[in-house]
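Per reviewer request, we include the raw input and output of the structure prediction for the construct analysed in the revised manuscript.
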Amino acid sequence: MLYLHNLPSINYENMKYKRILLKLSGEALMGSRHYGIDPLRLSEYAQDIKQIIDLGVQVSIVIGGGNIFRGVSGASNGIDRVQADHMGMLATIINGLALQSALEDAGVPTRLQTAIKINEVAEPFIRRKAIRHLEKGRVVIFGGGTGNPYFTTDSAAVLRAIEMEADVILKGTRVDGIYTSDPEKDSSAVKFDYISFDDVLQKGLKVMDTTAFTLSQENKLPIIVFDMNKKGNLLKVVSGENVGTTVNL
């Protein structure tokens, strides 16, 4: 099992979070590429997810589709917004299939459920069935967003996390948390280790879209933003180490 030789005391009982929803952006799957899917990045993610699955943590995942097609961008280029969002939903399913393949190559049983019917490719989303998959140690990937136009995959992630009764939403990004401003553009940006939902709104910080963020706040569901591209970070977050930024009440 990767990395565990450095963390010999970790076991399921030591995990702070027992059931998680991992939110990944489609762009994260590009790795060093300018578009599409990087197989190396997929493999790295699969190994990190396998780590916590092997420790008994229950994992569900929502992935964006921006590495293939983004509905808002498509609409701005003249495509009907509803049609563009449907194209974006299909892009998330493509990413879900790719991650499912990588996880199963790593020996992790995985199910892909979609919010739109595509029965020859994936199961339709059924809440009770998804929870049963989690209880059996399978990773559940949710594709197709919410199945509705005008809603982002952030909204889908929060909605599914609530339905799965997850302990936390883990938003894996290429940045190691939430800052006072964009750290890639402002060298003086200061990172928050902890911040409340109200402070995020008052400071105008971008964590998720407003609909998703408000839904998470109303359901008292914490969000942790962390760098998914650093090996071992997912395990550290789930075990309660101070990694990234925690948003809570």
